[in-house]
Amino acid sequence: MNRLQLQQFAVCYLVYATNYFARKPLSVVRGDLVRNEVLDVQTISIVETGFLLAYAVGQFCVGAALVKIGRRRYAALSMIVAGTSCALFAVNAAQRDGSTVLTVALWSLNGLGCAGLFPLLSGAMAPFWPAAQFGSVLGLWTTCQQLGGVLGGALPAALLSVPVATSAWWAIATGWTGAFVLPGIICALAGVILYVFLLEEPAALANGNTACTANGMGKDKSKGVTKVTEATEAPSFGDIVMLPSIINLGGAYFMIKLVRYTLMFWLPFYLMDWLNYSAGSAALVSSLFDLGGVVGSVGGGFLADKVFPGKRATVLACLCLCTGAAVAVYVQICTLGLVTNAIAIAIMGALVAGPDSALGGAATQDLCVRSGLASNPAACTTASGVVNGMGSVGSVFCSLVTTFVFQTYGWPAVFAFLGTLCVLAATLLIRPAMAETFDKQKCS
To answer: What pTM value is reported for the model?
Structure first.
């Protein structure tokens, strides 16, 4: 990487990881909120649903907002809004007579702030690398989701153990309120850092920038490099939705996101309920799902860029099928011992992370290149927002669907359902895979 590439990658990586500081506190502090009678279980469920709905809606709107206010302002504002609303959520909830509507609204505003960051930041990096390398770069970058999840959960957990201060001013920064306030402040400050250091594509690459030109940026897209010149007019949302295969990518992401979120959030409970693990053991073993995801994110990008170049959708379809097979095998072997169970969980995490990290990023970018929109940042960001938005709708249904299937048919049915979703996701990727094959044959 040259200096500009390293700066852009580092800023986007650290900022997106820091965004989890605003997203994770509620899941960590949930037990304390119920135990201290701050919020009941039903209210927390409504709050979480509000977050997920706002997150999904925000991703569909990211392209239009980008055109209005620009990428750097939009991304920085998103971080500041997410961090501020996270802190204010705790301040409002701490007032025992605080408004429930305001509590839901503040956490939903947090979701709206977090919504656009993935398409905004992945889109900010795209012009700085040749298209043939961007999948591998994005695979490495998406490991910030796992790092952010770990740090975003560890900080509130550590703050919970800090004794509550006696001073009224400091009390808000300690205990369960501090688990929201301090991470929220860090997230908001990261937004300021982003505004200062994030590079805008036209400004950074214009005027014959030799560092960028040496790496292929600014060249014609026929040589496999994303162009960064500004398009004269941005396609409408309807035009983006009508792009060939974009609904296929979004539908596949809907299913993969539902699979990943179900495994990520429900594995600890499954290990305790079905396999009689202790809470500590379940948390430790299930964390290997995220650890496997780090390997899978990098490995998926490497396979698509280096081993099977120009075949990203085909690679992702195969990974979806492998994930389905791994889920089906897991439910049969999870009783064979701790080591076997841990390895199987890590493998599932690695396999599902490949499609999860690429469908809303590199695969969508490939679609934009094939559609002649690589030179239009707003169009690429809107396309990424549509695919990520459809994926986020899957996360909204995660708890509802899993609870219904589990309570009605039992745990084996849950894993059968997840395996079926993986197969359906692979089926939806057949069309973009065929388009890739046709383009490759035409070019040759």
So the answer is: 0.76
